[in-house]
Amino acid sequence: MSSFEEAETEETVTCLHMTFYHPCQEEKMMFRCLNFCKREQVRADEVAKFGRDSNICHYNLMDTRVSRIQFSLQFYRKLNSSEYCLEIKNLSKRTKLTVNQTELGYLNKMDLPWKCTICFGDYQILAEIQEGESVDYFETHLHLAEAPILQERSLPSLQPIPEHGISSSIFLSRGKIPTEIDENE
């Protein structure tokens, strides 16, 4: 037998890709303590914490508006399943955390969707989970976004637009009220 045949089966690792954005990131350098160069391993029995306090959090955000511990991520396996998941928990008493459109208050937690946007304050984080089989650890791979992850969407006009393309405000300013006319008249 060759050494190739005797080698252990390679195990794939769950990897959480996180892309960070803040509008003032170039001026304030709040991401300067994050490692954007390589993947990092987090043991399955550890909780990955994000926040301002470097004594407690492995992922530090250098901003006084960020809580000492902003949020945590925990790797787990669902009961009676082989599926591995990540759970996000808001640990900030002052700031609500939103995951997609779900708002999490202090100590609220939920399963992290496979692809989602995490927001608090002016921070936007795109999180994408790449599935794996490892039970001992998961990996994080951090990225820096140059543009906002969420784009501002302009709200549609609340004023109805008539079929003829003429705004009713023109008629109202002249003292006339538009009337509906049957096509056959």
TrEMBL record:
Keyword Cytoplasm in record: yes
Ranges where the FHA domain occurs: 49-121
Database matches in InterPro entries: FHA_dom (IPR000253), SMAD_FHA_dom_sf (IPR008984), TIFA (IPR033621)
Any one GO biological process: positive regulation of canonical NF-kappaB signal transduction
Gene3D superfamilies: 2.60.200.20
Keyword Cytoplasm assigned: yes
Superkingdom of this protein's organism: Eukaryota
Entry GO terms, CC: cytoplasm
Subcellular location: Cytoplasm
UniProt keywords, alphabetically: Cytoplasm, Immunity, Innate immunity
SUPFAM superfamilies, per database record: SMAD/FHA domain
Family of the protein in this entry: Belongs to the TIFA family.
PANTHER family linked: TRAF-INTERACTING PROTEIN WITH FHA DOMAIN-CONTAINING PROTEIN A, TRAF-INTERACTING PROTEIN WITH FHA DOMAIN-CONTAINING PROTEIN A FAMILY MEMBER
Protein name stated in the entry: TRAF-interacting protein with FHA domain-containing protein A
Provenance organism: Pitta sordida
